[in-house]
Amino acid sequence: MLLSYKKIYAIFCFMKKTGFYWALLLIPLLLTGCAGRQEAYSKTDFYFDTVVTITLYGSPSQKGKTEKLLDDTMEQCAFYDSLFAPDDPQSDIYKINHAAGEAVQVSEDTATMLYAANRFCETTNGMIDITIYPVKELWDFSNPQTAAVPPASRLEKALAHVDYTALEIDGTRVRLSDPEAAIDPGFIAKGYIADQLKKFLLEKGVENAIINLGGNVQCIGNKPDKTGYQVGIQKPFADPGVFEETVTAMDERGSHSCVVTSGTYERCFTMGDTLYHHILDPTTGMPVDTDLDSATILADSATEADALSTTCLILGSEKAMEYIESIDDIDGIFIKKDGTVLRTD
Question: Comparing 7 with 147, which gets the higher pLDDT?
Fold first, then answer.
């Protein structure tokens, strides 16, 4: 199935404005070393405001079946995009945000994802706050040439409605007790979706695959030659495709199946000598003050890794190292503003 002109243009614009060319460059890196009669089949599209690439391995005799499964997996992406996009009037998130404090019936996926998101808000004591959306709407990181810092008066007004405790979940009914509050699950949604796509593919009998949601990489099994997938970690503010280092992802005991990175370099602009990035402090409405440019989490749950990568970037290098080292079976790689690379044990 060919991409529409609209999708092709969206992918091009996204990569141009964010420097995410590397999201596609990851694919040749990941496929190196493919062996035997297994071939790699990939499909790329644009969902969740990012470039999505799904890669499955299969024999040439099963090419048609594999390509059909790729199409089905992209349909799953479209389904989750329709559930979680805050600016889509048909999405569950949009309906919650525009319900004026009334309870909204949502899908089980939405309720499960929001429950996980709220748990991280509680764990971080509000350093991550899912109700940051009114503040986020004041910032425009899409065009560095026209971006500007929002007026303090508007930030103050929006901040009055940032409080994750306003989100109430009762089974599959969700409401915001503050009618002017609004949620944005961007810090965890892609991770949740990656985990659900993996579950979908496993149910279809897939043994080897790579799910790449714009730098949020989740894998199934390993490469057909039994080696792990090599995932590149982008060097902050370097040319796209210049990696600080590579890590191995494998879906087997003692290894990590997913690699997720959050960075200040992804969506940002500079004004004067100050860099303004898209990870916002829910207490000030301004970009968080951190000594990190990049936080990468290696784990088996992409949901957890997605939320933890943002958390660690907010915490800064010292507290991030302590935090991740206190959690079993999770590792971190942190790149400081001065270029120093820190790795957990």
Answer: 147
